[in-house]
Every structure is written in structure tokens, then in C-alpha cells.
Design a protein that fits this description.
Number of helices: 7
Radius of gyration: 16 Å
Number of domains: 1
Distance between the termini: 46 Å
Bound molecules: flavin mononucleotide
CATH topology: Rossmann fold
Strand content: 15-25%
Helix content: 25-40%
Shape: globular
Low-confidence stretches: 1-19, 28-38
Largest sheet: 8 strands, mixed
CATH class: Alpha Beta
CATH superfamily: Flavodoxin domain
Length: about 220
């Protein structure tokens, strides 16, 4: 198996799981089942872009796994409340006003080089100071797509939102896609149905809590 060309200090393989949450592995990127990562229709997009939804799902994805997980969570949230229960927004498009309008958050992105993907980090860099002191106490959860680790990205995300005083309200999900070689890492991903169900359940939990006003 080819070695990853990353410095030892960033080598995530064999990293230990820490903290609250579940890590789910699947056999490998090419053998796993099934999600349609196709582009949404215009009517789907209208639902996804509902700006007054209580739950904002901010996502970034390079090879499709995080997008599939975000869409599964979106479906779960809408199952909990109504069709306006959640909004899906690319990290690249998310601004401070989008976060301020929402009542709670789900952040979904890959781990890259032991940290949040750059696009998700840029979203926090762009919005952090505009929101400081303005969204304290709001609920959040995370889903990280990873090749074989994920804990670095999750810890970094948790640390960032501690500054906003957000409250984690459900266990994290780290979806391990079993991608370790450069070829596997760069390949389009399909996410196992069991893992998609876990993402859906996180959306359901967030959607239900926000809908009932218990968070
Ligand atoms: C530049 C780069 C760096 C990566 N670094 C890590 C890493 O540090 N830890 C890890 O578990 N996976 C790492 N991966 C693998 C991705 O996290 C994994 O392929 C994930 O499924 C990508 O999510 P996406 O399909 O939503 O883009 C890396 C991938 C790329 C492209």
C-alpha cells in the first residue's frame, strides 16, 4: 500500500479516538454502498435554501462524503419538524448573518491534514468575530468525514465553537471512509447506508429539539 506523502507530525493514521462520540468505519471507498450524490433539483434547492429554518447545516465536501452526510442529516431534520425545519448551506456561502438567523447548527466537513478542511475553517475565520457574544448557548453537533482518523478536525471545531459558547447537544459522528492511499483519498466517495442513517439520526435529534424548543 502506498504511503501518504504527509509529514509525520500530520500523519493521522493510528490516531486515538478521544472525547464524546462515535467513529464509524466502512470497508473502503469503492466497496461501500450507496447514496445519490447527484445535484439537487430546483425545488430541492428551494427547500435547502430556506433562510428562516431553525437548523442550519453548514457543509464542505471535496469528494462527496460530507455532502452525502449533510443531506442525510437534512432529511432527518425535516422528518422531525416540517419541511422548513432545516437549511443546507455550503461553507463557502455561509456568512455571519446566516448563522445569526438560525437557532442551532450542524457542521459537516472532512478532516484534512489533521484539521478542519480549509473551506470550513475559512467560514469560521470569516464569521467568528462578527458573532462573538451573539449566539451564546445555541445547540450544535458535528459530523466529520475522514480517511481513517477525524479526531483532529472534531477537536478543532469543538475548540472554535467553545469561543461562541455553543452547546454540543448530541454525540459527534466521525464517518471513516477507509481512504488511505492517494488514489483512495482523491476518489469520489460513497457512504455506507448504516452511516447515513446515523447522520440522519443526528439531524432528527437536532430538528426535534429545536422544533420542541427543548434546546
Ligand atoms: C488533502 C487531504 C488531506 C487529508 N487528511 C486527512 C487526515 O488528516 N485525516 C483523515 O482521516 N483523512 C484525511 N483525508 C481523507 C478525507 O478526510 C476523506 O477522504 C474524506 O472522506 C473526505 O471527505 P469528502 O468526501 O466530504 O471530501 C485527507 C484528504 C485530503 C484530500
Amino acid at each position: 500500500m502506498a504511503e501518504l506523502l504527509i509529514p509525520r507530525s500530520l500523519d493521522y493514521r493510528g490516531a486515538r479516538e478521544k472525547g464524546r462520540g462515535q467513529t464509524c468505519s466502512q470497508g473502503g471507498p469503492s466497496t461501500a454502498a450507496t447514496v445519490d450524490n447527484g445535484r439537487p433539483s430546483a425545488s430541492d434547492r428551494a427547500m435547502e435554501e430556506n433562510p428562516s429554518a431553525p437548523l442550519l447545516i453548514v457543509w464542505h465536501s471535496r469528494t462527496g462524503a460530507s455532502e452525502a452526510l449533510a443531506r442525510a442529516a437534512f432529511d432527518g431534520a425535516r422528518e422531525a419538524g416540517d419541511e422548513n425545519a432545516a437549511r443546507l448551506l455550503r461553507a463557502e456561502d455561509a456568512g455571519a448573518a446566516d448563522l445569526e438567523t438560525a437557532g442551532g447548527y450542524l457542521f459537516v466537513c472532512p478532516e484534512n491534514l489533521g484539521a478542519l478542511s480549509g473551506e470550513m475553517k475559512a467560514m469560521f475565520d470569516r464569521t467568528y468575530y462578527a458573532l462573538l457574544g451573539r449566539i451564546e448557548g445555541r445547540p450544535y453537533a458535528t459530523i466529520i468525514a475522514a480517511g481513517s482518523a477525524g479526531q483532529g478536525a472534531q477537536a478543532q471545531l469543538d475548540r472554535i465553537v467553545t469561543g461562541w459558547r455553543l452547546r454540543r447537544v448530541t454525540d459527534s459522528l466521525i464517518a471513516n471512509l477507509g481512504a488511505q492511499t492517494p488514489q483512495q483519498i482523491m476518489a469520489a466517495k460513497t457512504v455506507d447506508a448504516v452511516v447515513l442513517k446515523q447522520a440522519r439520526d443526528i439531524g432528527l435529534t437536532l430538528g426535534t429539539g429545536l422544533n420542541l424548543g427543548v434546546f
